[in-house]
Structures are given as C-alpha cells and as structure tokens.
Amino acid sequence: MEKVIVALWAFVDETHAQCGARLLQSLPAALAQVGIKSLRINVRDEDVAAGAGLVQRWQEPQQAAIVQFWMPSANAMFRSGVDAVLTAHGAKFAAWLVCESTVIANTDHPAVPVSPGQQSNIAGITRTWGFAQASLIAFRPDLPRSHAMAHWHSHHTRVAIETQSNFEYVQNIIVRPLTDDAPAYDAFVEECFPIEALDQPEVFFDAAGQPEKFSANLATMMDSCAGFIDFTRIDVIPTSQYDF
Fold it and tell me: Is-above-0.85 flag for pTM?
C-alpha cells in the first residue's frame, strides 16, 4: 500500500469554507467508488477561522484543503479514476507519494470514521476534537537532504513533542511528486491541538498560565525549525480534520 497526499485548490470565487463543505459532501463517496480507503480530509472552515494568525503562505492562491488516502499503487497507470475525481473537485490539485511516520497517535480524542458510501450530506460527519495544523514544508536549500532529515528526525521530533500541546503528530516525508506541477515540498506534517491553541499561543506551546515556560518553549521550537526548514517555501494552514 502507498500513501498519497493531495492539495486541493478552491474554484474561482469559492471561499475556503464553501470548498470544504462541498468536499465533505461529495468527495468521500466519489473516491470510494474508485477504490480509495482510509480517507482523511482536512478543510479550512469556520471552526478554525480563529487560527488565521497561524497561517504561513508560499502558494498564491493557497490550498483550500488537504486530502490523504492509501491505495495499492500510486503509479500513474492505476490513478486515472482517482485523478479524474480530484480534477472534478477543485480548480486544480497537486499530489505526492509519501512515507508516513506516526510519532503521536491520536488516542486521546479519536474521531469515529464515517462510511463514505453511506454519507450523503455533512450533517453526520464526526469532526476530530480540536484542530489539525497541516504543514507543507521544504528543507533549507543550503543543507544536504540527509542533514535536514537527520535534524528533523533526531532532534526536532523530540522538541515538537516536548514543547507543544499536540495530541497527534504525523510526519510524512515526500518520496516523489505525482503531478507535474506539484510545488517542491519535502514533507507534509500534521499535528492536532486543542481548539484554544488556534489563537492562544500559550496553549499551543503547552504553557497556559506559565509565561516563562511559554517563552522557553517558543524559543526552543523556533530555533529547531530554523535548523532545517526553508521559511520561504512553506504553507501552514489550520484545518478541521475528518476521517472516513
């Protein structure tokens, strides 16, 4: 099995919230019909609007949603049905083959997956508690990829666990792009946080009511990020997470 990450862009004159509602309503069933399972959709809806300050932008316009799924083979000859569905659901899409590493599994606030074949509207969909920060990142161009990977996995992973209130943390290293115009990211990271962390940095950095701890955690995180991330090529969006 291979994991695929897809970035979807909204149609012209469609808001992110409108795009997300449309995707949740029709995309799961459409992908199920072409054999996709273990589907996750991350959308930018009103539930995460308070997190506007967390957004970091490289792409313009920026992605409206992230779609994640597994398929037996992501080779182009087996993706025609999937690509047709994605093409019909956005102004454009970009896709990557990734290798997933679940650093922190969501065992504290799991959502109950919804059967896409039975879902005809969004009313019954279970939203994961809190919010998911979806980050598409590129490594520093002055570092060999092996050095960036070593810093990320050997140092930064521990920092991210120790300095944040994340209750899910999944790292996806990009193996190769699957679409010709896919932006040159190196990784996709998803982390789930309490909803208050959308606009309360002290909660985000696991230091509510502790100003000294907050300052220390923030400084440690920023220093570690600077050790491997190219901040000119990064897209970070707060999202609502839905599993199917």
Answer: yes
